[in-house]
Amino acid sequence: MYRALTWWLISQQLDFRDPATVAHNARRPVIEVTTDPASPAVSVDGTDVTGLIRTREVSNAVSAVASVPEVRKHLVATQQAILAGACAAGEGIVAEGRDIGTVVAPQAVVKVFLTASEDARAQRRSADLAIDPGATPAVTRDEQRRRDTADAAQSAMASDALKLDSTAMSLEQVIALIVRVAGERGFPLASRPARTG
Residue 192 — left, alpha, or beta (φ > 0 → left; ψ -120 to 50 → alpha)? Predict the structure, then answer.
């Protein structure tokens, strides 16, 4: 959702580096996130931006937007409403984000703090951005390092989270381990084939 708002600010040629501008416009776009794991999508004012929000341009701008208190207040409340709706419907939900376990859903019973080495993360992200010739592992690592520093305040691990270092693990292994942990904590999940992209 932070990426979606950032994409919208850029598309409207608004200064995403100016906190006052960001705060003033934080509630203008209608951001929607599907909760169907078989069809994940993000839209802004009816435009599908699922792929657009993963570009380097958005990645390198999102920290400035996410640090604005008005943005955090609005989007945390929106995320909490989505989670509450899914839980009230008896469906449950899997959510990911830097502050899900500490701010958005501190009451969640199953929390996983997923990490990997800097090099592994850079290699994976670079592969995701294969269409961008500038997204080499070295460039990606530098951009990632800057974002990690800028987002440090929102990236604390919840005291009751399981820390999972995925450096030497495949996506399938990570999913299988999380499914097992959820089952052990009383929340059996149906393991599905890993989705890429």
Answer: beta
Last residue of a domain, one of 94, 113, 129: 94
Token digits of residue 188: 């059996």
Q: Is 195 helix (H, G, I), strand (E, B) or coil?
A: coil
What's 164's domain CATH number?
A: 3.40.50.300
39, 69, 94: which is the final residue of a domain? Answer: 94
Closest by Cα among 85, 84, 117, 110 to 96 = 110
Q: Would you say 155 and 148 are in contact if contact means Cβ atoms under 8 Å apart?
A: yes
Residues 6+ apart with CB under 8 A from 135: 56, 125, 126, 129
Q: Per-residue pLDDT for the chain (197 aa), expressed as one digit of tens each?
A: 999 999 999 999 999 999 999 999 999 999 999 988 888 899 999 999 999 998 989 999 999 999 999 999 999 999 999 999 888 877 778 898 889 999 999 999 899 999 999 988 888 877 777 667 777 878 878 888 888 888 888 888 999 999 999 999 999 999 999 999 988 888 766 555 444 44
The range of the structural domain enclosing residue 139 comes to: 96-197
How far apart are the C-alpha atoms of 22 and 128, rounded to whole Å?
Answer: 28
Rounded Cα–Cα distance for residues 197 and 188 (Å) = 25
